[in-house]
Amino acid sequence: MKKMALSKKLFIGACLTFILLTQNVLANSGSRSMTAGEATGKQYFEGSIRFENDGPSCISCHSVNNAQVANGGLYAKDLTDVYTRMGEGVSAWLMAPSFPAMMTSYQNNPLTEKERKSLAEFLKYVNDTKSGQNASKGYDTMLMAGIGGFFGILVLIGLIWFKRKRNMVKEDIFSRQSKAWDAKH
Ligand code: HEC
Questions:
Q1: Could you list the residue range(s) of the whole structural domain that residue 111 is in?
Q2: 117 shares a domain with 150
Q3: Which of 38, 46, 62, 69 to mutate for ligand 1's pocket (most ligand atoms within 8 Å of CB)?
Q4: Quick one: pLDDT at residue 37?
């Protein structure tokens, strides 16, 4: 078998490390998988399904601590345990939210009953599974992967250009001529 270049080996190694890191995050996500209803609520929350009346998705202002949900906005409260405080009432509360930011967002784009029910189911799920979650884990992993990738690329660049010319091409001619000049003067 042809010998593999070191840089190629390093590159493959870096790819494998990255895959393992991502797998690790996925494996740790959630202590149980979502039911269909909860998954629909998640899609509404994240905005991967649009609300029927075009209201903004919750994630633009809120976040929940759950490895299966993207990191959300930091403008408003974290909703991870809002279900403990509001219970099923959260669904009705969403009909007429009492905070100005939400009132303006939804008074002309009200959520439908089906949407509010799915969101409540989703918030219950996040609340029920919160103990298995590790706060801002995704962020740390991304940060570490970023730093690792940065140094990996530096090493790769060093290896690929290891044989680069370190002196200018005309170095020889230049030193020959300057020697000749020195001899003359
Ligand atoms: C425009 C930004 C914005 C959007 C979009 C938004 N919210 Fe809010 N929400 C707020 C603000 C601001 C508060 C007030 C609490 C605070 O200061 O964080 C709040 C409060 C809440 C509360 C009460 C929290 C508590 O502990 O009393 C719930 C529940 C809630 N939002 C759910 C949602 C849901 C579900 C959605 C998506 C349908 C949503 N919000 C979309 C800004 C927003």
A1: 32-132
A2: no
A3: 62
A4: 93
